[in-house]
Design goal:
307 residues; 13 helices; 25% strand; seven-stranded mixed beta sheet; single chain
Amino acid sequence: MDWRIPELSDLDVLQECSLNNEFFANNYGAVNSILYEKKFRSQISIEDGWIFERFHEGENLCFSFPHNIKGDVSDVKEAVLKLKEDAFMSDVSIRFLNISLDEKNILAEMFPSAKIISMPESGDYIYRTENLSKLPGKKLGRKRNHINQFKAKHPDCRFERLDSENIRAVCELEDKWLSETQSDSSSGDLLSDLEIERKIIFFAVENFECLSKSCGMSGGILFVSETPVAFCISSILSRSVTDIHFEKCISDFARDGGYAVINNEFSKIAGTEFLNREEDLGIEGLRKAKLSYYPEKVLEKFLVEIN
């Protein structure tokens, strides 16, 4: 296989694959394939109408499940065997990471001796966009109250959709947020990951026009007294799903409910039936925050190791 680093010029074919396969899982999105190459040292190979991807989780080489660009799954087992043969020729073991339930079942049927591990920390939280925009019912009453309190305290707040005119404010906000987080954290691994994330966000800003044209990159900025205090960045994952890549709010306004406000405001303009707010990474506070919005479902993901 001709493995190579994914580039911006690959966006159109990656997005075509995402749309035709109606992906819900964020790790298969075109934008994530490009952005997170910087973190996971990702490579792709496009062979006979199939997209193959491999990446590193720490020092471990891992593979994504192969996907047909046109969404045709009739030859999926042949594609899996092609990937297995390539790995064998390269003398590397096969570790399929972030595999969906249906994909796990295919692999389990093909390789009965495979080791299968559930990965709840990697499950994507999927929400109905209408529920996040309207916050209906008693169970979301606390969220409505939080937003109302924020707007009462900051009556001059406003939300703007991301565009070429305001996108630079994201860099300012990211630097403020990172500075706050660095001063509060003593974990070297966390800080290293956040520095990489900063590079990814800045790359997205620098290439916003291209990412927006190919993959519907969008998002928003929350202002208070003309000062940007929170941002979110998203892209179109499939025709029914928008993926929220980043959502950040500087601490003074986060305490007042800034995250709830930008979440609510962006959901009003998202334009798809569902929002993927990605995984909780096994962080208890993040898990509770995501569950507090009552997701429609949490996508199961698995690690599958083939001997």
